[in-house]
Amino acid sequence: YFDRLQKELHKPPRAFPLLSVWKREIIRSRISYEFRSGLGMGTVLPRIPAPMHGQQQQNQQQQDQQQQEDEQQQQQQDDQQQQQRDQQHHHQRHQQHQQDEQQQVMPSD
C-alpha cells in the first residue's frame, strides 16, 4: 500500500493535450472569423435611448411640430417659386408688347 501511494505521488500530472489543442484551434478560428466579418473591431455604436413613460407622446408632438414646420417651409418655397414665375411671365409679356409696338411703329414710317 505504501509503495502504491509513493508511486502515485511521483506520477506526472495528467494533461489533456488533445483538448487544449482543440480549444486553441476553435478559439483561433473564431477570432479569425470575427476579424474577417468585421465583428470585434472596436466599433462603438450610438446608444439607443430607452423609452420612458410619456416620452412617446413628447416624441410624437415633436415629430408633428417638425412636420408642420416642414410643410410651412415647403409652402413658402412654392409661393416664392410661383411669384418668380409670375414675374418672369409678366416681364416676358411686357417685352413682347414693347417689341410688337416697335414693329407697328416701324412699318408706318
List the helices and strands and how they pair.
Layout: H1 2-9, H2 17-37, H3 55-108
Summarize the structure in words.
This protein is an all-alpha fold and 109 residues long. The chain has a domain at 12-39. It is 76% helix and 0% strand. The chain is built from 3 helices and no strands. It has helices at residues 2-9, 17-37, 55-108. The mean pLDDT is 75.
- Strand fraction band? under 5%
* Cα-atom radius of gyration: 42 Å
Largest sheet, if any? Answer: none
Determine the fraction of residues in helical runs and give it as a percent range.
Answer: over 70%
Task: Describe the structure in brief.
By secondary structure, the chain is mainly α. Helices cover 76% and strands 0% of the residues. It has a domain at 12-39.
Can you tag this structure with a few keywords?
109 residues; mainly alpha; 3 helices
